[in-house]
Amino acid sequence: MTIHEMRTLLGDTQSEFAARYHIPSRTIQNWEAGVRTPPGYMCELLERRVQSDLANRKTASLPEYDPNKRDLPSRSDYVGALSWLNAVRECIGEPFVFALDEALMCQGNFGGRSDEFIVWGYGRDNASRFNGVVLLGDHVSPYNVVERNGLQYTDFNRTIADALANESILDMQGITEALSRYYYKNDDSFDGLFVVPEYQDRFARLVDEALDYYAD
Fold first, then answer.
1. Three-state SS at 216
2. Element (H or E) spanning 175, and its range?
3. Fewer CB within 10 Å: C terminus or N terminus of the chain?
4. What phi and psi, each to the nearest 5 degrees, are found at residue 96?
5. Which pTM does this prediction carry?
6. Where does the pLDDT of residue 9 fall: very low under 50, low under 70, confident under 90, or very high at 90 and above?
7. Residue 43 has pLDDT above 80, yes or no
């Protein structure tokens, strides 16, 4: 796969592709123009990263209710978030890793909403037969998955990365509240959190919002 083909699959401009993988824009331009040829190992590394990013960015918009799909258990029918999530997992009936707001609920960092409709996660395409399921990808590294109370969910660092990657379609209230709680529980510090360079600027804005939330 050529650099141009990789970039086109992601839908990135040359500058966006360069920023995503921390490569100078001029280098990308030269590679695509044939002025220079990227090393073979670089192409292999980039292709693996691109394939992973493609697998984990399936959704560009939130789903609307589809009467032809099955409904998941209603959040309002359950007192606690964990009891609802266990019912959702049993309904889906196959391996499913909760992500974003649902991961935050599993972590105890966010209470959720009584009218919750969207369920974020990683799983097989078959999970999309239910209304409200938003798949971020087919798989996620087991190193980023926690299993507790019969549920599988992304750890906090991966949850933050997913939030920043999907900020354009995600209500950021949950992640902002969770960051605020993290700050409070860790002696007024964000130590222990890791954010990849491509999201550092956006994370800095999010931290400011979390501190404002904490101050309130």
1. coil
2. helix 173-185
3. C
4. -150, 130
5. 0.75
6. confident
7. yes
pLDDT at 27: 95
Helices (H), strands (E): how many in the chain? 9, 5
**Rounded Cα–Cα distance for residues 106 and 148 (Å):** 8
**CB of 152 closer than 8 Å to CB of 96:** yes
Residue 111: phi, psi to the nearest 5? -80, -15
Phi and psi (nearest 5°) for 146? -110, 140
Which DSSP string do the residues of 37-78 spell out, in sequence order? Answer: ---HHHHHHHHHHHHHHHHT---SSPPPP-TTSBPPPPGGG-
β-bridge mates for residue 120, sequence order: 134
Give the three-state DSSP class for 133: strand
Which single residue is written with the structure tokens 């949950």? 174
